[in-house]
Amino acid sequence: MLDVLTIDAWITLAVIAGAVVLFVTEKLSIDLVALLIILSLVLTGVISPTEGMEGFSNPATMTVAFMFVISAAILKTGSLQYVAIQLTKTFRNHYQRGVILLMLVVSAVSAFINNTPVVAVMIPVTTQIAKNAGRSASKLLIPVSYASIFGGTCTAIGTSTNLMVSGIAEQNGLEPFSMFDLSPMGLIFVLVGSLFMIFIGQRLLPNRSSAQEDELEDSLIDYLAEIEILDDSELDQKTILSSPLVKELDMEILELRRNGSVMNLPQGDTVMMRGDILKVRCNVEKIRQLKDQMKVRVMPFTDDDELDEGAERSSFVELVIPTNSPLEGKTLRAFDFRRRFRAAPLAIRHREEVLRDKLQDVVLRSGDVILVEMKSHFLEQWRTTNRNQNTPFIILSEQGITNFDRKRFWIVLAVILGVVITSSTGLIPIVFSTMLGVVTLVVTGCLNMKEVYRSIQWPIVFLLAGALSLGVAMANSGLAHHIAEALVTHLSQFGPVVILSGLYLLTSLLTETMSNNATAALIAPIAIATAHQLDVSPIPFLMATMFAASASFMTPIGYQTNTMIYSAGGYKFTDFLKVGVWLNLLFWLLSTLLIPFFFPF
Questions:
Q1: By the number of CB atoms within 10 A of the CB, which of 84, 358, 540, 576 ranks highest?
Q2: Residue 211 pLDDT > 50, yes or no?
Q3: Residues 507-560: pLDDT tens digits?
Q4: Residue 425 CB: number of other CB atoms within 10 A?
């Protein structure tokens, strides 16, 4: 195959290889990688400038953007949280029934709105449900993530991957998928996947003890202390920033108490005086140095309840970084976290470890959990911010539950039903039905235009545009044709079912290590070219690509929702592997057997 590749095909192959490395290593953000793909292909002449920009105007890209807005509207009503909280009683009385209902609710919602914000909303709610039911959250968060993936396979708008593959099909002269083309297979995935998780998967998940669940908070007990500045201390009359506490011992001063008044997170130019009591965050060794080197008295950590009645209180809050958060890939220092949010970081749960030192310089990733101390009156502001789909954080330990707005809920539900009915009957193309839905939401006051722009996850939009350009390059350069030809040459003797099965397996393995959208964009042109080589319908091959790209269960990095619950649930990498391997194999077998039945060659 390689000796007959054109220069354009070699360039496309090099761009793909570079993009795969960047997606896997996460050295650059996905939207920047997408722009680099477009620029590389246009500047090398593989695609024209017009073709490079077509991804941004593709109906699939625009539909995804509008669906993010509709997702934000339904989440803003608080309906999903309201329904989930109602399940708490069911969990107490009939735990298994509660798990079934929770998974079915998440699957049903994820079939019609983007599943990433659904899981973002469900993380704190599910954690609270688990606590109220006396169960471990680690038994519920993976089922919630997987349920959202199951539901996303049921309709054309369930995930951005489905819409993108539909867009690639349309680019290649095929009919775009209608709303419920995927539903027969999707519903089987929901049923079989849910039954597996309820009766087998949950047994394979860890059941952490309460001590383990509170590791983030408990690990801080040796790192929080109060010190009193004595009469002859060298700290007297020094500013916080110039004092040895900060310059030499690298301590974080969380609070300064003086004559009954309290300063939370005092500024660096605050002058310390004898008699001041400082609440500091540091390790045990630094406390020892402090006692030996300076005239201070170290006291046990004082809870808020012991403060004077008039003192402004502070609270400990756990924050989860969602997918596509503006903090992803940045440090707290670069984000100016303390000044912008008036909160002091105390610890970070990063994947499978708890970090306590040099927190300001930790590069943060989606799914990381940060324990912070913040002024109590800021909590309400956080709760308000938490309702925004693109918030930098999700409040985990504070519920932050939005009140259920029934009036707006019925308006948004009518909009969603309108989108489904008009697009599934062919009355209005899906891109225009979703656009009409967004306009309706703004006109009726459910959202304002600022919220519309804020709710769109722009990195995903850019990724789709770049991925569609890559599909055009693979077709233009003949690379997709050459790969398909090699595939058919080696497997044609086994028939189209085996080739479809191999294509599903390849897509499934690729999506475990890089973006599901990028994987689908890479495989979809090959799927179409393979069908042409076999002289059969490309639809079953595209279906296999769509389902495999979404069905990512084996790793916490293969799908956004898995990444988001990774640290929040205190999971290890192997927890996903134990359950996900069997689910991946199960979905592979189901697809091999049933896709040819529902979508004949």
A1: 576
A2: no
A3: 888 888 777 887 888 888 888 888 888 889 999 999 999 999 988 898 887 777
A4: 11
Residues 385 and 410 in one domain: no
pTM: 0.77
- Among residues 176, 179, 178, the alpha carbon closest in space to that of 168 is found at 176
Q: Which helix (H) or strand (E) holds 452?
A: helix 449-455
* Number of structural domains in the chain: 3
In terms of domains, do 347 and 373 share one? Answer: yes
- pLDDT, tens digit (0-9, with 9 covering 90-100), for 250-268: 777 888 888 878 887 788 8
* Token code pair at residue 547: 């389902």
> Tokens standing for 176?
């775009």
What sign for the dihedral angle of Cα 18, 19, 20, 25?
Answer: positive
**Is 381 found in the same domain as 446?**
no
Instruction: Give 120-158 pLDDT, tens digit per residue.
Output: 778 888 887 887 777 788 888 999 999 999 999 999 888
Domain boundary pick from 334, 360, 395: 395
- Count the neighbouring beta carbons within 10 Å of the beta carbon of residue 306: 9
- What type of residue is 67? M
Range of the structural domain that residue 452 is part of: 47-71+405-469
Residue 568 lies in a domain: no
Is 104 part of a structural domain of the chain?
no
Same domain for 409 and 377: no
Is 243 found in the same domain as 293? yes
Give the relative orientation of helices 183-196 and 95-110 as an angle to the nearest 10 degrees: 160
Q: Dump the DSSP string for 52-78.
A: HHHHHHSHHHHHHHHHHHHHHHHHHTT
Q: What angle do CA 293, 296, 297 make, to 5 degrees?
A: 125
Closest residue by Cα to residue 278 from 254, 294, 302: 254
